Amino acid sequence: MTISNKHFRTTLGKFTTGECVVTAGSGTVSPLGTTINAFCSVSLEPPQILFCLRRLAGSYASVMASPYFVVNILTKDQQEIAERCTVHGGGGLREGEYTISKYGPPILKGCLATIECKVYKNYPGGDHTIIVAQVLDLNCDPSSVTQNPLLFFNSQYCSFGDKKPEALGIEVAA
Ligand SMILES: Cc1cc2nc3c(=O)[nH]c(=O)nc-3n(C[C@H](O)[C@H](O)[C@H](O)COP(=O)(O)O)c2cc1C
To answer: Domain span at residue 115?
Structure first.
């Protein structure tokens, strides 16, 4: 079976994910964010996570230049940041919307949770690199229990409580 990019994306789009922005930048690298949903936990002891980054992404060199990064798990109200951080080269972050981690990268304010990490090992993953990282610090504000997550399903941003795909005008295959 020949698998086109579109078929792959449409099919994998049935797997609902959260949305994160990986932020990097310290020293000579300006603060930037890249939207990702290829993210998951790897290990409890030691605590490790992974995310996948496309090797040809404009933000690739900047993210890979930084040994530290933060995974910012977005709320429904942060869709604009997610959209801004899909631009070529990674999205610029606005002053006032982040603080700086003691490890260097920006930490976005108002997220469901933020995870400060140090790169452990990179592995090839087709046209992506799989970045496995050690978790250094976690921040999960108790007030976030009242926030809804930003989700991605059927190639659309959505959240809990949204209307069904038909009502959103998304084509549902027979
Ligand atoms: C919902 C969503 C999820 C994404 N997830 C990833 C991801 O997990 N890994 C990745 O490398 N790019 C992902 N991207 C694309 C990046 O944000 C990408 O770097 C950005 O679109 C800039 O593209 P360019 O630098 O290749 O031109 C995602 C984009 C969207 C809209």
So the answer is: 18-160
